[in-house]
């Protein structure tokens, strides 16, 4: 029997929604899949954010080791400039790279932080890439052009990311936009699955991975239509129409899973996984306003107050250091999606801030203030549930790329870094936000049927997949083989192989061909120039 693993990724999937869809018959095959295998919650990273979470799942290493902390992060430990994360920032090999190095064929579709594509023994079409660049960023060279000849229905424009449309998931959309926006994601997922289907039929791999990111997008914008607890007693025609359109999306995903299982074969192990879960958020914390109120931050004179009517999640764009009077600021937040606060320390990112010798004491003071004085002005209840230090959340060689403090809010929402008119405001509508409890389902030989697992962690998926492939499990992976998934007979039939620590990424497939690297460098330089201009205050 040849080992085969398929990772079927649902970005942001939560049992809050999936259980309801299975109960209503919208996802009958997922219900069958769950009954035939093992399932449970899959705990995410801190914070539960897409780039660090998926990278953790595929590397078996935590963000402090693999180097991805957000969609955007500081270029280095001392730089003032922020950049979009790419495959070049991933400091640990993925299980795809390790399998490739062992001579196995691999496939990866729509994975974040995989652009430009690593040169693996197989194919890679990276996610979160605009359609204009997706062909150049894919591997091998000419892969998508070749597919277009074999798949006339393949539309690269639908395959790529349209950031003007995706922004709606963050900023909110008008009611009339919901249905065409959901249709866009239905079409887009169909394009991704069309590639997977073709490859499984004509060029099967030992390990294949695909991520359907529309789950996350729909839940951000359409949470009131998907959370069964928010269903109105007497739903309107408009509510039912939009909810049915959302259900069409999930019906399609259910069909994709069924066909994936059929094409994978009875000897394959299929993992249904999410990088994080979801829940509803009904308020916005303007964290920089709170820091100002407590005397930790001073705004620049030209930083304007944002409209109170905005329904955005607070992470549509990063703020910049020019928005703060750094000479009179001790702490600030610039990247809302991290829920992270940066402490100004003299000599780290400039001459301003507290003395290095004051860091520990000031950080302890700030943590105490966040937990005890960041409160709802109406009820006096704490808004911040928990605060992690950098050492707690991001221990490892990449720790200093992350924020000094990471917050978990009472409704698990993302705070806003904008200058609002108050510290806390209620959202006009509930919006979906990330939750640390994702989903896991596993089917295949030796999997205990109908088993409900105690929560596993994203870190556990990589060693478990390597175990199933019969590959050595590097000693520096931070998770474990999840033996509770399998029967005792299956575990006795194959022993885990332990290997040396992982090698550097340069030796396991992350080098790029010169033409792709050059094209990428041109695009990167343009992007970095724009971001630097914004950081310096010349562009909004």
Task: Explain what this protein looks like in three dimensions.
- With about 550 residues, the protein is an alpha/beta fold.
- The protein has helices spanning about 15-25, 30-35, 50-60, 65, 95-100, 130-135, 145-150, 155-160, 165, 170, 180-200, 215-225, 235-265, 285-295, 360-375, 390-395, 460-470, 490-495, 515-535, and strands at about 5-10, 40-45, 70-75, 80-85, 105-110, 120-125, 205-210, 270-275, 275-285, 330, 340-345, 385-390, 405-410, 425-435, 435-445, 450, 455, 475, 500.
- Strands 1, 2, 5, 6, 7, 8, 15, 16 and 17 form a 9-stranded mixed β-sheet that branches.
- Helix 18 (about 490-495) links the parallel strand 18 (about 475) and strand 19.
- Topology, number of strands: 19
Helical content class: 25-40%
The N- and C-terminal alpha carbons lie at a distance of: 58 Å
Unreliable segments of 5+ consecutive residues: 309-318, 512-522, 528-540
Mean pLDDT over the residues: 89
Oligomer: single chain
Output the structural class.
Answer: alpha/beta
Count of alpha/pi helices:
19
Sum this structure up briefly.
This protein is an alpha/beta fold and 540 residues long. It has helices spanning 15-23, 28-36, 50-59, 63-66, 95-101, 131-137, 143-150, 156-159, 163-166, 168-171, 178-202, 214-226, 237-264, 287-293, 359-373, 390-393, 461-469, 488-493, 514-535, and strands at 5-10, 38-43, 72-74, 82-84, 106-109, 122-125, 207-212, 269-273, 277-285, 331-332, 340-343, 384-389, 405-409, 424-435, 437-443, 451-452, 456-457, 473-474, 498-499. Helix 1 (15-23) packs across helix 2 (28-36) and helix 12 (214-226) packs antiparallel against helix 13 (237-264).
């Amino acid at each position: 029997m040849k080992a085969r693993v398929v990772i079927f990724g649902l970005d942001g999937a939560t049992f809050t929604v999936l259980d309801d869809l299975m109960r209503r018959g919208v996802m009958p095959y997922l219900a069958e899949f769950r009954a035939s295998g093992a399932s449970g919650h899959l705990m995410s990273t801190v914070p539960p954010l897409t780039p660090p979470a998926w990278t953790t799942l595929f590397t078996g290493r935590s963000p402090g080791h693999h180097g991805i902390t957000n969609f955007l992060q500081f270029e280095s430990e001392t730089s003032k400039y922020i950049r979009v994360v790419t495959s070049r920032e991933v400091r640990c090999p993925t299980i795809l790279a390790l399998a490739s190095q062992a001579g196995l064929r691999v496939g990866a579709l729509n994975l974040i932080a995989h652009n430009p594509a690593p040169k693996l023994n197989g194919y890679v079409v990276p996610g979160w890439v605009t359609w204009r660049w997706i062909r150049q960023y894919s591997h091998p060279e000419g892969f998508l052009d070749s597919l277009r000849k074999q798949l006339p229905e393949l539309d690269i424009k639908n395959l790529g990311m349209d950031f003007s449309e995706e922004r709606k998931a963050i900023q909110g959309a008008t009611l009339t936009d919901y249905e065409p926006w959901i249709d866009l994601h239905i079409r887009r997922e169909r394009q991704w699955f069309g590639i997977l289907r073709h490859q499984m039929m004509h060029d099967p791999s030992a390990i294949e991975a695909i991520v359907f990111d529309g789950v996350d997008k729909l839940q951000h914008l359409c949470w009131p239509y998907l959370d069964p607890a928010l269903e109105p007693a007497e739903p309107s025609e408009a509510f039912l129409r939009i909810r049915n359109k959302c259900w069409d999306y999930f019906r399609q995903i259910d069909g994709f899973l069924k066909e994936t299982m059929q094409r994978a074969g009875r000897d394959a192990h299929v993992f249904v996984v999410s990088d994080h879960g979801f829940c509803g958020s009904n308020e916005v914390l303007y964290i920089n306003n709170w820091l100002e109120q407590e005397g930790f931050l001073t705004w620049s004179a030209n930083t304007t107050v944002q409209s109170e009517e905005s329904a955005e999640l607070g992470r549509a764009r990063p703020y910049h250091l020019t928005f703060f009077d750094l000479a009179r600021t001790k702490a600030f937040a610039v990247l809302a999606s991290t829920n992270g606060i940066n402490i100004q320390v003299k000599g780290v990112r400039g001459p301003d801030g507290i003395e290095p010798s004051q860091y520990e004491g000031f950080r302890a003071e700030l943590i105490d203030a966040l937990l005890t004085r960041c409160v709802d002005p109406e009820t006096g209840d704490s808004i911040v549930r928990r605060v992690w230090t950098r050492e707690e959340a991001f221990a490892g060689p990449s720790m200093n790329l992350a924020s000094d403090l990471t917050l978990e809010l009472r409704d698990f929402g993302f705070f806003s870094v904008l200058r609002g008119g108050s510290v806390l405001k209620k959202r006009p509508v509930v919006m979906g936000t990330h939750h640390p409890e994702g989903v896991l389902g596993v089917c295949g030989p030796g999997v205990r049927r109908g088993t409900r697992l105690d929560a596993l962690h994203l870190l556990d998926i990589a060693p478990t997949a390597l175990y199933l492939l019969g590959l050595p499990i590097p000693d520096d992976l931070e998770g474990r083989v999840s033996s509770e998934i399998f029967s005792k007979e299956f575990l006795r039939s194959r022993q885990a192989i332990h290997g040396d620590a992982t090698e550097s990424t340069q030796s396991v497939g992350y080098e790029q061909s010169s033409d792709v690297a050059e094209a990428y460098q041109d695009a990167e330089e343009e992007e970095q120039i724009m971001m630097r201009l914004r950081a310096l205050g010349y562009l909004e």
